[in-house]
Amino acid sequence: MDEACARLERARAEWGVRIHTDPVVALEVRRLELELAELDQARAHLEKERTKLQQQAAALRARARQWSLWLE
Hints:
Elements: H1 2-15, H2 18-21, H3 23-71
């Protein structure tokens, strides 16, 4: 994702106004924007999964503590 972001920023900085007037550049910028959007969606999905796994891990730790106390 960082690479796609960097490429998009480099394209904007390098080509400036030509982004809107040069169709090849405009297509490349659009492709990079779409790639970045896909990566953002993937990141959001992974963050959601990480949160879910963290909650499951916390629940398992709590159950392990309960079993530990019960076995003492």
